[in-house]
Amino acid sequence: RELVCKESKKTFKATIAMSQEFPLGIESLLNVLEVIAPFKHFNKLREFVQMKLPPGFPVKLDIPVFPTITATVTFQEFRYDEFDESTFTIPDDYKEDPSRFPDL
Fold first, then answer.
1. Range of 49's domain?
2. Which of 11, 20, 49, 101 would be 56's cystine partner, CB 3.0–4.6 Å?
3. Residue 31 and residue 17: Cα distance in Å, rounded?
4. Helix boundaries (H) for 12-88
5. Which ranges does the record mark as transmembrane (predicted)?
6. Which residue has the higher pLDDT, 100 or 43?
7. Residue 36 lies in a domain
8. DSSP code for 21
9. Does 81 fall in a domain?
């Protein structure tokens, strides 16, 4: 049987606004996107950010996730804060629901 190979390419238009004064680096954004990327529509956003971008931090991203839907991510305000460790303590009576987020 003869091997049939097909290639299809899709192009999309994305918009990005970069800031060299923003106090975070692109690595921080990639870490956040890695956490939410299992939701397949955020994966496109993560792949877009991993491309070679101009210097700075992307303070606004507009990227299509469907032909009629565009995801917009905007960083309007940022500040470093100190949090008490108890903020991140899991309560003793916490029970994980295995049916919630089954793809993670």
1. 15-88
2. 20
3. 19
4. 26-36, 40-50
5. none
6. 100
7. yes
8. S
9. yes
Q: Residue 45's pLDDT is what?
A: 67
Residue 8 CA to residue 94 CA, distance in Å, equals: 47
> Is residue 65 one of the residues assigned to a domain?
yes
Number of domains in the chain: 1
Q: How far is CA 93 from CA 46, 86, 89, 90, 103, in A?
A: 35, 15, 12, 8, 24
Calculate the CA 37 to chain-centre distance: 6
Separation of alpha carbons 6 and 64, rounded Å:
24
Give me 32's structure tokens: 């956040």
**Domain assignment present for 44:** yes
Of the candidates 68, 55, 52, 50, the one whose C-alpha atom is nearest the C-alpha of residue 22 is 55
Total count of residues recorded for the chain: 104
Per the listing, tokens 């100190």 go with 82
Q: Which pLDDT tens digit goes with each residue over 47-82?
A: 776 777 788 888 898 888 788 888 888 888 888 888
